[in-house]
């Protein structure tokens, strides 16, 4: 392949397919850029692991499916995330394992019927789009990064990075015991705060936030998971100097994954979400649980928020990291 | 470290009382990879913003392993950390030390450019955003009666007419305390407290706002860098403040026009003039008027203090007027 | 023999381009492959649902404003 850049071509773009990398664009929060990056970082990182990529390699986030791509040179690929019918040159492709693709192979991913909503594709070498602000991730709201700052369309040709020593042809899969549980009814671990009870919400409000079964709104996307309007009783009568509504505060920066209550509507801020604003954040999704946001299907899925402590969040981190390790993989006979 | 153990709960890790000229500090849980530290109480006081900016600057200077980035708010800083490298207790101890060691007595200067920006009030695009909101999102929103948000903001602040509101924006420099929401969006606060105005935000929020729209939410003015959702009451539109294509020299460095600490002085233009300026910006004919400079914090605070009695009277009048106006 | 028109998108299904417009298609109307039969709103965007077959619409299986999932039958055609 001397002198030639390996490429792949988008044959069908689907609902929203973007280039992402993990952990995305850090260090630009103070300029108003959320990190972007894969919504389901577990499936994304697992796909990179299966094709022998660096953890920082860029791959594809496919929303729902109906995507096809042609890989122009031999490569190892892996398809992880929401279960969806997939084929390579017409042959069924198993998810969560390495697949060897000869030059000119066509990968097709059909519609994910649920549970789950997003599918991740890693290709050995990683997608070699320019690094902007330390990341190759697409930030759709700011038209920044990835491929021309936008979702991919039919005919787009994307460069692949080099694989030192050639792509490994070791075929491996994630052990069945390490597969994530997908559901239509999700439980998502959160930490209370930064603005909860007793100063902003009442104990009953927090109790309601944590016990209610929330339906995911169809207008949820990478900027945020919209839940349902809820009449909180609030621990204060108004927003004071910050505005009339008790959800209003003097504007501050938001953590990614915050459960932001704007007026009466809780929205969980996604990786492309607003970085700051003047509404309270009653809870924040634990980093190790953030991947679940990427698999929420915005038609009928439900969410329950379960409060955990900082210590428990660290333990979830450890468990997730253990699963994202070579020892979680096994050779395919 | 003098952390009080009272008032600690699942959302609040620690509090420090106000002491020797320094505002209180509240350290809040913001997930398992960030802490939100708030200074003082929730009141509109630029002294808190200056304190926050000084802390932010000191954090960057002192550095700490595992501290990833800081993102300011009006009186707060969101501090992101990597829990593998830094325990939350260590982070809070560090932030507490930074606060303790801060010396604000001598004439602190912050880098602060002055940007002169044109504004066309009550323009077609912002009216379109309000009209669309009424048609598609909420027909009975009190802040959108009459097809604009200006009537509502005028009434909410007890002002006689549109001109009085426009004059409040034009009569003082505004300080860009921090940026966020979307890339390059400034959170602007009036330097002259006599020209403060306030407004509740949309409920629910708007799904479309034109780029360059100028709006008011709480006591904060802002400019929308890109077409986006939004919750501020709209009064007019200025020139682009975000252009990743860097079609104008003003965007050469980063694609963003503004920096934290900048000041903005608006001047009035007609809508046809503004539309022409948009073309000139993208053709690189327009030169943004940006004056390099510093802001002397103590000088500002002394000046604002002299005006505070008058400002308090005006604020009380505003608050009386607001009690008679429905909140969205 | 009947054919169904499926939506490739999940979300909220609308039979009209705007709330006060006429429906794209009514029962009894003929449709050709490629004709728009409705809109699906999801992720703050609207997507057009088109017929992939020719025929006469016998009836709609979902109402205006119903939540639909991807691959769900929207209308039955009498070929």
Written account of the structure:
The complex is a heterotrimer of chains A (333), B (328) and C (79). Chain A is mostly beta strands and 333 residues long. Chain A has 2 domains: 7-180, no CATH class; 185-322, Cyclophilin, CATH 2.40.100. Chain A is built from 4 helices and 21 strands. In chain A, strands 13, 14, 15, 16, 17, 18, 19 and 20 form an 8-stranded mixed β-sheet that branches. In chain A, a hairpin with a 2-residue loop joins β6 (86-88) and β7. The longest helix of chain A is centred in the last third of the chain and has 14 residues, at 310-323. The mean pLDDT of chain A is 94. Chain B has 328 residues and is an alpha+beta fold. Chain C has 79 residues and is mostly beta strands. In chain C, strands 1-8-6-3 form a 4-stranded antiparallel β-sheet, with no helix packed on it. Chains in contact: A-B, A-C. At the A-B interface, β16, β19 and α4 of A face β3, β4 and β5 of B.
Summarize the structure.
In chain A, 11% of the residues lie in helices and 31% in strands. By secondary structure, chain A is mainly beta.
